[in-house]
Amino acid sequence: MSIIVQKYGGTSVATIDKIKSVAKLLIKRKEAGSNVVAVVSAMGKTTDNLIRMTKEISANPSKRELDMLISTGEQITSSLLAMTLKELGYDSISLTGFQAGIKTGDSHTKAPILDVDIKRVEKYLNEGKIVIVAGFQGMDKNGDITTLGRGGSDTTAVALAAKLNCPCEIYTDVHGIYGTDPGIYPNAKKLDYITYEEMMEMASLGAKVIETRAVELGCKYNVPIYIALNTGECLGTYIKELDESMETKVITGLTVNDDDLMVTINNVLYNTKDIYNIFNKLSSRDINIDMISQTAPVNGYVNISFTAPKCSKSIIEELVDELKTNMEKIKVDIQEDITKISVVGLGMRTQSGVAAKIFKIFADNDIEFKQVTTSEIRISYTINTKDREKAVSNIAKEFNL
Amino acid sequence: MSIIVQKYGGTSVATIDKIKSVAKLLIKRKEAGSNVVAVVSAMGKTTDNLIRMTKEISANPSKRELDMLISTGEQITSSLLAMTLKELGYDSISLTGFQAGIKTGDSHTKAPILDVDIKRVEKYLNEGKIVIVAGFQGMDKNGDITTLGRGGSDTTAVALAAKLNCPCEIYTDVHGIYGTDPGIYPNAKKLDYITYEEMMEMASLGAKVIETRAVELGCKYNVPIYIALNTGECLGTYIKELDESMETKVITGLTVNDDDLMVTINNVLYNTKDIYNIFNKLSSRDINIDMISQTAPVNGYVNISFTAPKCSKSIIEELVDELKTNMEKIKVDIQEDITKISVVGLGMRTQSGVAAKIFKIFADNDIEFKQVTTSEIRISYTINTKDREKAVSNIAKEFNL
After folding, report:
1. Which of B53, B56, B79 to probe the A interface (max A CBs under 10 A)?
2. What's the whole-model pTM score?
3. Fewest CB atoms less than 10 Å from the CB: which of A137, A375, B14, B281?
4. Residues whose CB is less than 8 angstroms from the CB of residue B345 and which lie 6 or more positions away in sequence, other chains included
5. What is the phi/psi pair of residue B95, to 5°?
6. Helix B152-164 and helix B212-221: axis angle, to 10°?
């Protein structure tokens, strides 16, 4: 008998009525002849409400205790869903992360899955039960409850599917993966399929439908992932290995990210020690920098630019003050109204000229770009936020996204 | 270093502010030189709210799933309390029931504690941590989460104290154990101490401050139990073995219970088969009957009365209809406005005349009683509910309760 792992996110299980709808979808699949595992998130705003309580206690609560607290959210959903299935006459059982054998590292609030002991899930599937697993959580070697961080339930689902050697379906509140954000470009097209590599680039660049880690895991264990609307009525998007059935497109997706700022440090003495000093200081404070660019040296000085998350702004300002004590000549400019636009596509490996086409679009439409970086399957540009819609719609039209 | 187990009920941890107050009490005890274990219940109405959700799903939800669901309530409180202690600079760790080694039977929603593996709690105490344990829950041999039923957190606390060989303090929203219910007799006196045996009788008769099972466990392992108001400011009541320091009273307590109804079956043929048939039917439907009385046979017929919980009324009516098919002559009367009054005291073992004194009180005050049953340390009477206050106040005055 085939097995399917399905995952339902927080909005899909936000109320008892929605949980009942999910139960019906699981039953439909069971009746169609599959053994079914469902991974669920916390109901709607449950996690937010739990975290709000901690704010009355501490600005920086113990992460170990935070995991203990917020893991209850998924446990609640899973028991309610199993209860609903039993009420509808279908045998079912709910499992917490650790009961489902999810073994993690001990970095609380963002623990990696190290292994899945699938015995208990398999036993219940063999008994004909619909198995409900609390997503987003596991247990470390000390027997402490951990959570997996943002998008953790996706990772739980894909990890279970990898161990059960079956496909994974992720049901959510969007119709699938779009070539670009329909919120910015309303004509954006839904993709029928996308490769793991492209999806990883898209997810890491800010496409929020699925977490990068889950896609990585799917890629590593070759788990076909299907993402679709939680009504189960519309065709979604498959994330899978490249195969011959896929139409070759040069560009599969365009992502837009407004979460970064750009720091420019002018008049840096052109020697490796000073430049090393800047990036070493940033890394010592865990600033996640990206898109580094440097001008050619003029009179022994260079200008260096890089992007970093907007939330790091105050730490960066602190570090800049420290740098100024030793590097008196530098002038620092922090720009917050920038947007990072990235095009992603496996086709770029074989087709050249993508960058040139985009430069032409920028020139034709008066779009100033500040930085450009490339990898094997993507090109990213930093532009002024005011040019965002213009850039997105022109690129999307050109590449039929 | 001495160890103390404290238990805080739902009203004591109903809000974050109340959790902060509990944290301060724990710290005070820690600073005074004790190793501290705190057992906590779910915050205020949390459990009720979780159960309300299940009502939208099923009139009779899966008990295994119900345990999975409601055990989250205590887990939430315990993590928030540990978080608060850490914020105040005191090392602390929260444990679910199973993490604290609470091993139970598998009768979900009312599982008995079978054993406590105390290793993990001891380890953390040795590290100087204040250990917070989620009350009311444990794990069965299948690895399923169980709950212990009504008053389960008291049982958790006493079981931990038994294994740690230390006293147990139960903090609640009343000042301790009263000789009788102050809601009925406002002059009721708080007891300084009461023996396990007396408290077990009182608790099983409906005094709701502590669950019978917890007292039984305390008695079995000789755990001194102290019950007091959760502010920690007033002297409460000790539940312990009889010792010489205790003043000998004939009657320690008087309990009042309005939860029962009285069933009278008239014209039962006086043969063992018919009488067996009645009680067998009741027991087959798990009706918890009490205070059975039977008139002397007249012309080969007897009248039988018994009390049973008011919540069993509809089942009893069903059973009565079934009985009538074979026992055509019987006439059944169900009376709901009855009250059971019980006096409890170790002194009754050695002093006679208690029953006589109470019969005199009833006669002097025109109180009709319907049934009377006695055990070694208690006498119970069924009276009309309208006479309740009169009976209680006269008995309380007579025995100085």
Report:
1. B79
2. 0.84
3. A375
4. B198, B249, B250, B251, B252, B253, B354, B377, B378
5. -130, 135
6. 10
B1 Cβ partners below 8 Å, 6+ apart? B33, B34, B35
* Cα distance between residue A133 and residue A123, in whole Å: 14
| Whether B107 contacts chain A with CB within 8 A | no
Would the CB atoms of B75 and A80 count as touching at under 8 Å?
Answer: no
State whether residue A75 sits within 8 Å of chain B by CB.
Answer: yes
Which H or E element spans position B256?
strand B253-257
Residue with structure tokens 């609390």? A134
Reported residue count of chain A is 401
In the stretch 220-249 of chain B, residues with CB closer than 8 A to chain A read: none
Residue A374, strand partner residues: A379
**CB pair distance less than 8 Å for B96 and A145:** yes
Torsion of CA B140, B143, B144, B145, to 10 degrees: 70
Q: What are the tens digits of pLDDT across the range B175-215?
A: 899 988 888 899 999 999 999 999 988 877 766 788 888 99
- Domain limits, chain A: 3-173
CATH number for the domain whose boundaries are A3-173: 3.40.1160.10
Question: Do B79 and A86 make contact, defined as CB atoms within 8 angstroms?
Answer: no
Contact A139, A102 (CB under 8 A): yes
Asked whether the beta carbons of residue A87 and residue B58 sit closer than 8 angstroms, the reply is: yes
Distance from CA of B229 to the nearest CA of A (A): 24
ipTM entry: 0.82
